[in-house]
Task: inverse folding
């Protein structure tokens, strides 16, 4: 790459000429290449967490770290807004998520209602977000299900992976024996 003036904007020294001779601003980078199997779920998680942060930050603090858990996704898919979650009630939420989260169902629901009680202001746009959250949660669940299915198929085709033997602790000693030691006579 060579540095040259940005001809398109008439600015001097602000562009980088690539291999095709096309000028682009010096501070731009090409978009990152997606990593297979990770990017769709990360994007979905980030979108969902960002939306929750905008409408109810306290609820996001509770659900955010567990956003990819099947119980949390099922809850958000069924009840997309804090008002809908509150209206459903504790018992209904516990019975809904208990099959997906046996041990954490009651604790999670208590944390959710504590977070709902902490925020007293209704943010404008919460009703609109209630339409978007369930679809984002469903999309993220679909991506995670697809990842599990592909992992199972790959494992099935490859068979059992070889067991991990651990590092070769003797390799270090063999290397040291080959290298001359400053205090050792030969």
Result:
């Amino acid at each position: 790459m060579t540095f040259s003036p940005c001809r398109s904007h008439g600015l001097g020294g602000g562009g980088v000429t690539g291999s095709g001779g096309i000028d682009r601003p010096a501070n731009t980078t090409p978009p990152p290449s997606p990593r297979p199997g990770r990017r769709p779920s990360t994007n979905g998680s980030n979108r969902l967490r960002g939306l929750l942060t905008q409408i109810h930050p306290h609820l996001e603090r509770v659900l955010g770290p567990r956003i990819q858990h099947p119980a949390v996704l099922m809850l958000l898919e069924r009840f997309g807004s804090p008002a809908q979650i509150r209206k459903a009630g504790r018992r209904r939420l516990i019975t809904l998520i208990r099959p997906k989260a046996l041990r954490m169902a009651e604790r999670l629901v208590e944390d959710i209602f504590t977070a709902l009680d902490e925020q007293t202001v209704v943010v404008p746009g919460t009703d609109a977000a209630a339409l978007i959250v369930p679809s984002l949660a469903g999309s993220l669940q679909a991506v995670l299900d697809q990842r599990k299915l592909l992992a199972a198929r790959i494992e099935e085709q490859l068979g059992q992976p070889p067991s991990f033997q651990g590092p070769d602790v003797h390799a270090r000693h063999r290397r040291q024996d080959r290298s001359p030691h400053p205090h050792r006579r030969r």
